[in-house]
Structure formats: structure tokens, C-alpha cells
Write a structure and sequence with these properties.
Helices cover 75% and strands 0% of the residues. By secondary structure, it is mostly helical.
């Protein structure tokens, strides 16, 4: 009987530890599931409305703001703001891939975003020649996409 107890006690302890570990694992998995970031889901609007709503106003403001070097800190701040809006808007384009030529769409979106980031950095440094160059590069990427996906409509002029 005593030999049975020698085996029973460690077995009971092992089973208890296993049950405790399984419960902890299940709780940890449940907690991780609850803490997952929400899915990125695009707002349900057509592409024309998305482009117009996200990009048209900052593009128009930048066109005016970068026609000549901004004169003061407020002018550069406005350029930084619109550059950020356009760069992040380009990130959002990656959530709206077309059925055909998605790889090319992504390439143009990333290039537009990267040019927007360069514009943002140049505006922060108050470097007009670099800002202007980045702005024109960004528009070039936008226009390349418009030529492919909009049959050449909505071409943007710097």
C-alpha cells in the first residue's frame, strides 16, 4: 500500500500541474485573442470618392503652398501637414488593391508614399528645392498610376 502511495502522490501532483498549465495556457490564448488589434477595414466608398475625399484638398493646398517658397513657419507647417496626409493616404491605397495589376498599384502607392515622406522631411528642414523636387516626384507617381488605372484621367499638374 505504501508503494502505491509513493507513485500516487507524484502522479497527482503532475496531473494537477498539467491541469493548471492547460488552464493558464487557455487563459493566455483567450487574452491574446481579445488584445489583437482590430482589422484594418476600408470604408465602403468607391475609388473616385475615396481619392477625391483623401487626396484632392491636400493636393490643391500644396499646389498653392509650393508655387513659391513658404515665407514663414506657418507656411512650412501647412506643407508638412499636407505631405503627411498624402503619404498616409498612399498607405491606405494599399488596403484597396484592384483585382487586376495589384502589384503595379502597390508599387505606385509605395512610391507616392515615399515621395510624400521625403516632402515631409524637406518641409521640416525648410528646404524648398528638395521639397519642390519631392512634391513633383510624388505627383509623377500619382500620375503614373492615373495613366494606368484611370485611362489618363485626373492628371495632376505641379
Amino acid at each position: 500500500m505504501r508503494s502505491l502511495a509513493v507513485f500516487a502522490v507524484p502522479l497527482a501532483l503532475a496531473l494537477g500541474a498539467l491541469a493548471f498549465t492547460s488552464t493558464d495556457r487557455a487563459r493566455a490564448e483567450e487574452k491574446a485573442e481579445k488584445e489583437k488589434p482590430p482589422a484594418l477595414v476600408p470604408v465602403d466608398v468607391n475609388m473616385h470618392d475615396f481619392m477625391e475625399g483623401m487626396f484632392q484638398a491636400p493636393y490643391r493646398r500644396l499646389k498653392v503652398a509650393l508655387a513659391a517658397e513658404p515665407k514663414d513657419a506657418a507656411g512650412w507647417k501647412a506643407v508638412r501637414s499636407d505631405a503627411l496626409i498624402l503619404a498616409e493616404g498612399s498607405n491606405l491605397l494599399l488596403t484597396r488593391l484592384p483585382k487586376a495589376d495589384a502589384e503595379l498599384w502597390s508599387k505606385h502607392s509605395v512610391a507616392s508614399r515615399d515621395s510624400g515622406v521625403q516632402l515631409l522631411k524637406a518641409a521640416k528642414a525648410k528646404d524648398y528645392p528638395t521639397a519642390r523636387k519631392a512634391y513633383e516626384a510624388m505627383l509623377g507617381h500619382c500620375n503614373a498610376c492615373h495613366k494606368k488605372f484611370e485611362d489618363g484621367k485626373h492628371i495632376l499638374a505641379p
